[in-house]
Design brief:
272 residues, alpha/beta, 9 helices
């Protein structure tokens, strides 16, 4: 048997060091809206990379199911019922993560909602509900996480935007406004917190197969064909398509990336 070459050994060592850049062992992540869909998929990805996870959601039964799923992956996980439109509840969530696992390193601001109406029909209350849930909650949760991340020597904030951060559509005026705001808020937080070693980035999911988009396909029967025709990848996205980007943005691999907004859309955004 021939002895291993120096090149072969060096390549293997480089591969091990490279993988360590994505290792989240010992890190603690909070995922709002983390009990289903994209949020749970991101939680699974980070759990598989070694992170402990705090799932935040309003539905206790779904929270418990998410924790069981993460535990089955070998991860430490906990859940908390949270109304992300409450400033005190958001602060309590970050304190809960710190008391449960000793630190807080990663925040995924994924909680969101939508009310499909034309601009002239949307009430102020409905507008406020969407903006508070999608945008203001991300600000308040990030603000509450900030001192804990400073205590940990740095951190990662991952804000969830949308294709509607880039585009508009007749029936999603509040949703589009909230998701456009996510992109600008991400840039400002990234600039403000870079000296604290906190990186802030946004993920812009495309057309993903979730409960919200299934309802949209019921409301708009032509939507399915339109999405497939425009998406070069030729399919709807799956929640698990977000596992990799979550691990990347939560890990040391992205330590010099901040203020970015990254589409996960099968090239939808660049297709004419």
């Amino acid at each position: 048997m021939n002895p291993p070459s120096i090149i072969g050994i060096t390549g293997k060592l480089a591969g091990v060091r490279g993988m360590k850049m994505f290792d989240l062992t010992g890190k603690v992540a909070v995922v709002t809206g983390g009990n289903s869909g994209i949020g749970l998929a991101m939680a699974r990805g980070m759990a598989e990379a070694g992170a402990s996870i705090v799932v935040a959601g309003r539905n206790a039964e779904k929270n418990a199911g998410a924790v069981s799923e993460l535990n089955a992956l070998g991860a430490k996980a906990a859940a908390r019922e949270v109304d992300v439109t409450s400033e005190s509840a958001c602060a309590g969530l970050m304190d809960f993560a710190k008391s449960s696992f000793g630190r807080l390193d990663i925040l995924v601001n994924n909680a969101g909602t939508n009310i499909r109406k034309s601009p002239q029909s949307l009430t102020l209350s409905e507008w406020t509900t969407v903006l508070d849930t999608n945008l203001t909650s991300a600000f308040v949760c990030s603000q509450a996480a900030y001192p804990h991340m400073c205590d940990a020597g740095g951190g990662k904030v991952i804000n969830i935007g949308s294709m509607y951060s880039l585009f508009g559509a007749p029936m999603v005026v509040a949703y589009s406004a909230s998701k456009g705001g996510i992109v600008q808020m991400t840039k400002s937080m990234a600039a403000a917190w870079a000296p604290d070693n906190i990186q802030v980035n946004a993920v812009l999911p495309g057309w993903i197969d979730t409960d919200l988009t299934r309802q949209a396909r019921k409301d708009l029967p032509e939507l399915n064909d339109k999405v497939l025709t425009r998406t070069p990848a030729g399919r709807w996205g799956e929640p698990d398509d977000h596992k990799g980007i979550a691990v990347f943005l939560a890990s040391a691999a992205s330590d010099f990336i901040s203020g970015a907004s990254i589409p996960v859309d099968g090239a939808f955004a660049i297709s004419g």
